Amino acid sequence: MRKAAFIKKLRFMPMIALLAGLFIFLCSCDGGIEELGTRPMISDTDREVQVVVLLGQSNAEGCSHIEYLSDTVGSEKAAIYNGDGFFGVKIAFYNPGGGNSSQGEYVNVKTGQGYNETLFGPEVGMAEGIFEANPTKPVYIIKYAYGGTALENQWRPSSSGKMGFLYKGAVLYVREQCKKLEDAGLYPYVKAICWMQGESDAAGSKYAEYEKLEKNFVSDLRKDLKYYAAPDKNIAFIDAGISDSYIWTNYLSVNAAKKKLADADADHYYIDTIAEGLKYDNEPYGSPDIAHYDSASEIKLGNLFADVLVKNVLDI
């Protein structure tokens, strides 16, 4: 009975989230994305800053509960995550589904930047790992995420057919936030895109198309954000696998597609979240939300993104 009830509840989650974004859909699907041309170079390298983009559905958006952190990571760590952030790392975030955002500003990374202010996403663990590596140039995270959405629909790039409203929304939001850095006298380079998505596709009927869709997605994002890319470098794509929760029926197919693309592209990195032991079956206590990572695992997801960034992408 509990399994059936959860599945029934899950079926309504994407609909609720998408109704909340209907206005965004209507406004952003008309027309393509303007090309920005070539950005003038600068000689003052002290103005350079590094940008990491975080995109995806609910496990990127953040549906892990702050209240359990004291139990799962300890009160000392929890106090840091709930505190004043990590020096040298800022975030601008917009989660349209829950309406939670940084109001167009860059703020300290902390808990409460998830679907709503009681939840958090991988940005916390990302900021922790980046801070500990002590990068030579400041790092800015730009997060745009929406739960219950699929690559074959809402995130669809134009080279795969009609552009999805979240694809266009993400590109425009990243550009807007990069422009804000420029207006502050900085010179941002988009170094990487971190992608935590695929659950909705694994539960849908078009899971077999994921490889082609994601290949086009990566290519289109690199093209549409090329204006802010570092000279003569691809924007790295860091691709987190999805969990083996039974509700993601075809998770093996989606994860295999992600890994295959990473194996074929030197700037595409795959994170095997199952092999890394990320858990989803303990929280909330007594009635686990098996669609979303438990609190300690959401922190670890961010740490795993940071590990790839530090070892392969960022100037450290």
Q: How many domains in all?
A: 1
CATH superfamily: SGNH hydrolase
What is the name of the CATH class? Alpha Beta
Head-to-tail CA distance between termini: 52 Å
Q: State Rg.
A: 18 Å
Q: Tell me, rounded to a whole number, the average pLDDT.
A: 92
How large is the count of helical segments? 11
Q: Kindly estimate the percentage of residues that lie in beta strands according to DSSP.
A: 15-25%
The number of strands is 10
CATH topology: Rossmann fold
Q: Judging by the overall fold, what is the CATH architecture? A: 3-Layer(aba) Sandwich
**Unreliable parts:** 1-30
Order of helices and strands: HHEHEHHEEEEHEHEHHEHEH
Structural class estimated from helices and strands = alpha/beta
**Amount of helix:** 25-40%
Assembly category: single chain
| Sheet having the most strands | 8 strands, mixed
Shape estimate: globular
Q: How is this structure best described in words?
A:
By secondary structure, the protein is α/β, with parallel strands linked by helices. The protein has a single domain (2-22, 51-312), classed as SGNH hydrolase (Rossmann fold, 3-Layer(aba) Sandwich). It has 11 helices and 10 strands. The chain has helices at residues 2-20, 22-28, 58-61, 69-72, 75-81, 123-133, 165-183, 199-202, 210-224, 251-263, 295-312; strands spanning 48-56, 64-65, 89-95, 100-101, 107-108, 119-120, 139-145, 187-196, 236-240, 268-271. Strands 1, 3, 4, 5, 7, 8, 9 and 10 form an 8-stranded mixed beta sheet that branches. A two-stranded antiparallel ribbon has the order 2-6. The longest helix is centred in the N-terminal third of the chain and has 19 residues, at 2-20. The radius of gyration is 18 Å and the shape is globular. It starts with a helix and ends with a helix. Residues 1-30 have low confidence and may be disordered.
